[in-house]
Amino acid sequence: MKKMLNKANLYWLLFCVGGYALLMGLMSAGIIDAVNQTVIQTIIVNIILAISLNLIIGITGQFSLGHAGFMCVGAYSAGVMLKQIGGLNGFFIGILIGMVINAVLALIVAIPTLRLKGDYLAIATLGFGEIIRIIVLNMDITNGAAGLVLPRVVDFTILFVFMVVALLIVVNFTRSAAGRACISIREDEIASEAMGINTTKYKVIAFVIGALIASWAGALYAGNFYVINPGMFTYSKSIDILVIVVFGGMGSMTGSVISAVVLGFINSFLQSFSNMRMIIYGLALVMIMVFRPSGLLGTREFKFSSLFKRFTKKKEASQ
Amino acid sequence: MDSKNFFKLLTAGALSLTALAGCSNDGGGTTDEKVSIGLHYELKGDAADYGNAELRGSQLAIKLANENEDYQFTYEGIEYDNGSSENEAITISQRLISDGVVGVIGPSTSAPSAATYPILNDAQTIVVSPSATANNQTLVDPDDPNSDVYEYVYRVCFEDSYQGAAMAQFAVDTLGVQKVAVYGSVSSDYAKGLNTAFTEQLEKLGGQVVANESYQDGDTDFSAVLTSLASQEFDALYIPGYYNEAGLIIQQARELGIDCPIIGPDGFDANTLVELAGADNLNDVYFTTAYTTVDASEKLQAFIDAYTEEYGEAPAMFAALAFDATNLLIEAIEKAGTTDKATVNETIANMEFSGVTGDFTFDETHTPNKSVLVVELVDGVQETAVSVTPE
């Protein structure tokens, strides 16, 4: 318990509560208008998606292109339950159902395919994502191509809490023994196998956690944005998520958060330049990748603990 | 160039700009009050063809309204591209609300529309949709036909189901068809809605669907299914879907020797269809639509002339629908004599509108009561048009 309440964690807690209070205050005061509120909601969903994919791609080094499929399952589970039961109860039951389905699916996909490497895995997960979408497209309960029109049940608080919990899980996982094992797989699979690490096991663990968190993102999307239909979860959605991860730096959760925020606001800003928009957006991406090939932050993380260390070092040096 | 000359040039440029700016106001209405109308269209993405055509229709309507001496307000269109994305449709709706528009025209397609209506309706901003044809689109819960209608949402097009039923009626009554093969898209709610309504009405009239095949949007090779269809016996082939695939299906079907009538929905109504299918293959092809240039009324002819003069090409259905939608809103504002949204809304609900796609009033679901036209293509050219009402 004492360990959990150290200085760094206290600062993180203050940071989260402070960030929440600040955003909430600005929203209720009307300084952040409706447009930017929606942009922030989109950004939060994208952050959750990006960190969950980063866990698979950046930390474990497994190139997955099926993330939209997991998001789709989460979105439709919540959406269908919202239709059947309604209200926040339906929404949370939907999240649970989505997680169960996603866990099973992720296991089914992961166990055979995570023995594949590199390009093969990418193709296999790409196919998986498309299968999910086609199934949803052809089911009656999901209303086929028309998708579902839903009431909005999610508010900023719920989004924010889910984002913080997702971040906590992912960041703590990467610093656990299992997370270290995942990083060793990313760095050198053969070497880590030689060190006695069960590589398939840790790959599967990371994959399943990533899939579960992606299903939250899907559910939050469904509960917040009125409409879901299979057309939203094509592989290009997976690519969008991948862009956020690569842009921020593979392996850096701070990077994913920052890049989701930056890309979200760039996108919203460019809405006023309809014709030039995709060109400018593409150009911005190319420039960043040319000048910072490993993404905005590379694999670095922002930590309060290292900030303190730097301060104490400076103090010691000055004394 | 020395600096003196440069300044002279700059002043001259600035002066000519002010002079130009002065000109553009001359033709307009009598008050200086500018009324903003949101143009919320799919200018990129899957539905860009519709969105761009509709944007032109709307812009023309606004331009003509500003030239109309009888109108008391001056109008300006604030256009945004929602990129055929539901998520962006939401932020654009919010932008339009903060821009202070009286009403919004668009989006063109059903999914972005569904994301747009709750937001605009809550902000009591009027929406007139040119082409969101999904069944029960204007209701709060589209799955429940008894749910409330969005108070501020209207559309000037008929529903998918109405159009599908009309085609079945035409097939049985006019073409004398009994057995129909359906080859429809499963990727869009539009195609599925049409398929269901067509089949229901056909069976009601004593006909039957002998084969029901499906394709995905984006497919380009249909020969496998068409070959198997070619060996079956049917009187007509119904293709509920959009022009991209329909054009290729018609071309491949005709080449495989399927020479029965081919019938379809208003998704056929694009010049691309002729390019894809080839004019030679477009004989004995019929489709339902809200708009045709065949036997044009005086009003429609005036629109066609104005549009052709402005853009150098003939208008497609979507341009005409958007023209009507925009004019409906403008006329309502003029009739109400105010930009107060609630008053304008009430005016629309009780309005008898006469547009280029026909005269209509709104029913209790804010969908127009108007008849469907069935157009026949001969060598890729629209030849005849008959008005059909499903019974």
Question: Which secondary structure elements does this structure contain, and how are they paired or packed?
Answer:
The complex is a heterodimer of chains A (319) and B (391).
Chain A: H1 7-28, H2 34-59, H3 67-84, H4 87-113, H5 118-138, E1 148-149, H6 156-175, H7 177-187, H8 189-194, H9 199-224, E2 227-228, H10 235-248, H11 253-270, H12 277-291, H13 304-318
Antiparallel strand pairs in A: 1-2
Helix pairs in contact in A: 2-6, 2-9, 2-10, 2-11, 3-4, 3-5, 3-9, 4-9, 6-7, 6-9, 7-9, 10-11
Chain B: H1 3-26, E1 34-41, H2 48-67, E2 74-81, H3 86-98, E3 103-105, H4 110-122, E4 126-129, E5 153-155, H5 160-173, E6 179-185, H6 189-204, E7 208-215, H7 223-230, E8 236-238, H8 243-255, E9 262-264, H9 271-277, E10 285-289, H10 298-311, H11 317-336, H12 341-349, E11 353-355, E12 358-360, E13 372-378, E14 381-388
Parallel strand pairs in B: 1-2, 1-3, 3-4, 4-5, 6-7, 6-8, 8-9, 9-10
Antiparallel strand pairs in B: 10-13, 11-12, 13-14
Strand order of the largest sheet of chain A: 1-2
Largest interface, chains and sizes: A-B, 30 and 33 residues
Q: What letter string, H or E per element, gives the SSE order of chain A?
A: HHHHHEHHHHEHHHH
Mean pLDDT of chain B: 87
Distance between the termini of chain A: 33 Å
Strand portion of chain B, in percent?
15-25%
- What order do the SSEs of chain B take from the amino end to the carboxyl end, as H and E? HEHEHEHEEHEHEHEHEHEHHHEEEE
Name the average pLDDT of chain A: 89
Number of strands of chain A: 2
Domain module count of chain B: 2
Give the biggest beta sheet of chain A: 2 strands, antiparallel
Structural shape of chain A: globular
Structural category of chain B is alpha/beta
